[in-house]
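Let's do one together. I've listed all components of the complex below, 348 residues spread over two lines.
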Amino acid sequence: MKILPLIMITASLAMSMNVQAYQEVTSGGLETIRGMAKVNETKSAEALKRVIKDKNPIKRNYVHQPPVVPHQIRGYQVNKDSNKCLTCHSWKYARETGATKISLTHYEARDGKTLSDVSPRRYFCSQCHVTQADAPELIDNTFKPVELLGSN
Amino acid sequence: MTKESKIKSLLRYLKSPSSAALWFILAIGFAGGVIFWGGFNTALEVTNTEAFCISCHEMEDNVYEEYKETIHYANRSGVRATCPDCHVPKKWTHKIVRKIAASKEVWGMLTGLIDTREKFQDHRRELAEREWKRMKENDSLECRNCHNFEYMDFSEQGNRSVKMHSSALASGEKTCIDCHKGIAHELPDMKGVANW
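Okay, and this is what the predicted structure of the assembly comes out as:
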């Protein structure tokens, strides 16, 4: 009758051993976007990238790509009260400021009707148009834009 | 000599000035002037600090919180522009005029004109317009205390900045505040604001 406690002790010992000797998990030699870091390892964060301060317009990579923002936009308020982007890029001011005009599609509501001002669904610029950082690509990319867009 | 007669003799001495009393009065006047004037200016300077501005929750909870996210609060070189740098002129006469005008703000504080966020938002356009108007009239004087056009190096500026600064600003057609609105605080509803 003394065999039951013995089994229990052995079992609990075995379990605790199992917890201690955790497995080392590797990515199997494959380099992911995280680099060669092990799966259970916390990689230290990369240094923050600087946003491009001010550059001429950057060409698109594919048709219908929202053009990227070639300048910094820190502190630009875009909310229900004010839209800083439109103080240059709206049709009203684009000629005067020399900024790229927003496309006509931004005046169209979802039912296809053209409005007299920017459609609410196109109002929040940075949902599609993003700033650029001077950073190398994370992985090699051989994508080439179609000819009509020109090369970068 | 009793205590009373001591006081009496002192009074008599002050009432009938001898030759020494003229200098005594002048000295008193001079010392009094130094104390009063120094005290006045010290008190004035105390009201000209950020700590004083945000001692009212109207300022601390609204405009100060908004300002903390902007470049005039935190930036790469650690140079800061605090409340009075932008909102109070540096020259003494202008400063006094602004300080007297600001006594209205004390009344606003006492009557609780903007003592909640909602009330503040309701008045934001009016408050902002007052400040825009003031800066437009003095040709953005407070901006120019630090940002001197004479020393702007266009080769260090971005394309967009050069374009605007070398034309509209250089010709005096526009002043800083015409374009740089809401750089330190949230903007009110901008409907109908020129160039917006």
